[in-house]
Design goal:
Elements (H helix, E strand, L loop, with lengths): L1 H26 L5 H28 L23 E4 L2 E5 H22 L6 H21 L6 H4 L8 H19 L20 H20 L8 H33 L4 H16 L7 H24 L8 H15 L9 H29 L6 H6 L1 H6 L11
Antiparallel strand pairs: 1-2
Helix pairs in contact: 1-2, 1-3, 1-7, 2-3, 2-4, 3-4, 3-6, 4-6, 4-12, 6-11, 6-12, 7-8, 7-9, 8-9, 8-10, 9-10, 9-11, 10-11
């Protein structure tokens, strides 16, 4: 039963890949849609392969010490995922189920990067970074906490990955965006900020509902078992809290946009849902439902403020991914202290510092290496025509394109 529950939860998280794809495809302009679709199915496949080759062993293998993980290959017969995971002497799920559940988390972290660098990054530069991110950077920092490294020893608490998954993806995205620069026409010489509206808001909304649904597997599956009364009750509470936090994020973001802009901005509401989900992910099992909703409310307000602030700093993020996953991820890690008596301020701050410092620094180095070797940005002419034509040779909506 626990293995089956674990696998179904993994399938729900895998379905989040479709949610990210639809959200990003809806928020970019039509001339860059095919490239977004290609990136998302490509990054998911790359993550699966790299995590199988090296990532799983880095994250869960026997480390050299609490800071440096071990290195090995998944296919090594001495390090197979056959067998079961045990707890207190009881076998309760297959190790292969654990591998499957973890690999879809890796892909989620990389999906965050895709939306932030949309419309102006070279496809194969992005996929090359996906190799590094999913095979090495993400597993290395995740070893420090979920793999039993030094953050685990310090008491860092991150139940399903507000920091380990979402903040790490946002930091990799921020490093790439800083080197990449903004889309042409996004910012004017006089300091003005120009809107570059997405092509398909119904599709973006569908993507958020898919993500919302998949998040029940993301958080609920992180309980790891469901075969006893305590675990079953814990899973039920995780579902309730996850749902309420997302709802609080939506309402708060819509209200904030109305108060700030005089209009009810759908895209802010969509990012409010994601911010609420990210905010509760670090501890969906400990708050009562009222607190879970309030955690989402704070996340919904923060994401609106963060998106506006990044725009004023001329940091162009078409999907709002850095704010929804990064700013809300930081809040989610700290919100653990509101309901989890086992968490400590030192542990949570140490976790944030380690994730932000390591992932941002390593990502910046690898993005820079890719930039000086093969380049990371398409040309101005290619960007004008659209990444679909220049990178993929296809158009998402050819019947609506003027020839």
């Amino acid at each position: 039963m626990d293995t089956f529950y674990f696998l179904v939860s993994g399938v729900l998280v895998m379905w989040m890949a479709a949610g990210f794809t639809m959200l990003e495809a809806g928020l970019v302009r039509s001339k860059s849609t095919v490239e977004i679709l290609t990136k998302n199915i490509g990054l998911y496949s790359t993550a699966c392969i790299m995590y199988m080759l090296v990532g799983y062993q880095i994250m869960y293998g026997e480390g050299l010490n609490s800071f440096i993980p071990g290195f090995g290959f998944f296919l090594d017969p001495d390090n197979s995922v056959e067998g079961v995971i045990t707890s207190g002497g009881d076998d309760y799920y297959s190790k292969s189920a654990d591998f499957f559940f973890q690999v879809v988390f890796v892909a989620t972290a990389m999906s965050i990067v895709s939306g932030a660098v949309a419309e102006r990054m070279k496809l194969w530069a992005f996929l090359l970074f996906a190799v590094v991110m999913t095979g090495f950077i993400y597993p290395f920092q995740a070893y420090w906490s979920w793999g039993g490294g030094f953050l685990d020893g310090l008491g860092f608490s991150d139940y399903a990955g507000s920091g380990i998954v979402h903040l790490s993806g946002a930091m990799a995205a921020l490093a790439g965006v800083l080197l990449l620069g903004a889309r042409r026409g996004k910012y004017g010489s006089g300091g003005q900020i120009n809107a570059l509206p997405g092509a398909n808001l119904p599709l973006a909304t569908l993507g958020v509902f898919i993500l919302w649904m998949g998040w029940f597997g993301f958080n609920g599956g992180s309980e790891l078992k469901v075969s006893d009364v305590d675990s079953a009750n814990a899973v039920a509470m995780v579902f309730v809290n996850t749902n309420l936090s997302a709802a609080g994020g939506v309402v708060a973001a819509l209200l904030a946009s109305r108060l700030m802009f005089g209009k009810t901005d759908l895209t802010m509401g969509l990012n409010g849902a994601i911010a609420g989900l990210v905010s509760i992910t670090a501890s969906p099992h400990t708050p009562d439902p009222w607190l879970a909703m309030l955690i989402g409310v704070v996340g919904g307000v923060l994401v609106v403020l963060s998106i506006v602030a990044l725009d004023r700093m001329r940091i162009d993020d078409p999907a709002g991914a850095i704010s929804a996953h990064g700013t809300a991820g930081i809040w989610g890690v700290m919100a653990v202290l509101l309901s989890n008596s086992e968490a400590t301020l030192i542990g949570q701050l140490a976790g944030l510092g380690a994730i932000i410092g390591f992932v941002f620094s390593l990502s910046l180095i690898f993005w820079l290496l890719i930039k000086v070797t093969m380049g990371i940005r398409i040309s101005q002419e290619e960007e004008h025509l659209g990444a679909d034509v220049s990178e993929c040779g296809l158009e998402a909506y050819p019947e609506f394109t003027n020839k």
